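Entry 14. Structure prediction run on the chain below.
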Amino acid sequence: MPLSLKDLVKRWRRDHRAKAASRVIEIAPSEERRRMFVAAMGSSAMLWSSRGAQASWQAEPRPTPSGADGRINIRAFGAQGDRTADDLKAIRQAIAAAAKSDQYPASVFIPAGNFRRGDSIALPNHICLFGEGVSSILNSQNDRSFDRPILINAAVSGLISARLQDLTLYGGSHGIKLDAEQENADLRLQNVGMLLQSVANIEANKLLQTTKIINCVFGSAPYGIKVSGTGTNCLIAIGSEWIDHSEGSIFLRGADGVTIVGGRFEGGGRKNRYCIDIENASNILFVGCFFENVHEYLARFRYITGSVVFESCHFSGTSVSGGPLQSFKWDIADSWVVFRDCLSVQPMGVGGQITLEGGNHGIFATDVLYAGSVQSGRFLVQPRDVSAAAFDLITIQAGSAGGDWQVQGSLTIVDSQGPADASSGDIPVIVSAASESRPLGRSDLRLVRRDATHWAIVRASGTKTRLGWAFRWDCTGAGTPPSVAAALTR
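Output returned:
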């Protein structure tokens, strides 16, 4: 069942308090004892936990702009953190002071408190904002009139090298909104929660590059992560959660190298919406992820180079109709999706072109099932109603003109007319870089050369029927083998 917002926040606070407690150093508030400890430990006085999170003093002396540990505390600049005072000026002054220091990255400490601001906080390049966990809140939760992003990029070129750690961002239009003329790169989030945004938890206009997300929660917003422009690459999320997104959890247009490990996707559940919506991408991988009661369509993929891989993932189903859980739908069209040792609680048919590797309980192909590789493979297209017009059965796309490759295959056509099935038997197919258009082994099949690198096996116009087909091939010779695919567009 989806978590309520109250339960989500309660769990988020409980988990992070436990983690914070594991890395807190108990120091008596004696100034003498603190000086002795710092003198003995030197730069190690600020310890790092095994997760890379900075420890904080349990009993901290009066805040100073630059303490023994080198951090700049926003309270030293007048921040109140009482939910009502506008702390924007103090936060801006602390960031400006950090930017002038010799620290790299410029680090600003946000202690426990609810820090309200009247406007967005502009982040310069090479900045680190870190707090004490869920109690360090950049708070717009109680200010419904605040309709701007909480964090934005200061430079018009974009945001380069920013760190957010142990913070909670409530409300506003966005947790982070990046509008770059050039690029956004090297954004790192750890133990960060973003909730109750009216547009998206994170949105970038383009080029969200080398972004690492660890143990974060994104929730209660139309979108989780949204990048409308091209250029997202090396986006890695580990152990993070996407909860209750009314439009979609991940929306990317142009991406290369997206890896989600141990992600939890839950809630939102609406008809005709996609939990994951990715176009013009390559190298997309989901490992050990859990999907429950998200939108009617779990994913939409378009123009994917290579394949999208789901490995050891769990699919519970969705109850968008208000009844019991039903299997997710998929809209993957021209893309190729690989399921590897996954489980679906509800029997889940996946259309488009898929490969099943290992044990995939409850998952089956409704269109094309692949096996093998580009050098040697096979696929089976499930019988479907086809029109009388001519259409492609198989496409062969070479990487470049020429080459010494050769595809040798065997095609089987199954015509289903009423209760009786008639198989064509095996039809040999041989295609090389020099192949021209020619008839194949039966009157309604032809090999058609479309251009220098593109061939198709075409069924000629005929009667409306129900048709299925299978193709098995081996590719020999030198050079890059061509791509062999089932053509599902009629």
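The chain has a mean pLDDT of 83.
Filed with the rest of this week's runs.
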